[in-house]
Write a structure and sequence with these properties.
This protein is α/β, with parallel strands linked by helices. 32% of the residues lie in helices and 26% in strands.
């Protein structure tokens, strides 16, 4: 079985930075997953367009809880 490397990024209101983060990580890992912690901006969309898989919380739970879930 081949090992895969996954980057999990918790994000809240990061529309101005998330695309660059995802782009940089995609060069280092097999898959990038952004956990959007209830953002009201375009964080989820920007991450998706940059190539990440996106999980979105409907309300803010905090960085630790976002990663746990």
């Amino acid at each position: 079985m081949d090992a895969r490397v996954l980057a999990v990024v918790a994000a809240h209101q990061e529309s101005g930075r998330i695309a660059a983060t995802v782009t940089a990580l995609r060069g280092l890992v097999d898959e990038v997953v952004v956990v959007d912690d209830g953002s009201t901006d375009t964080t989820s969309w920007d991450a998706l367009v940059a190539g990440a898989s996106v999980l979105r919380a409907t309300r803010r739970r905090g960085k630790g809880r976002a990663i746990e879930e």
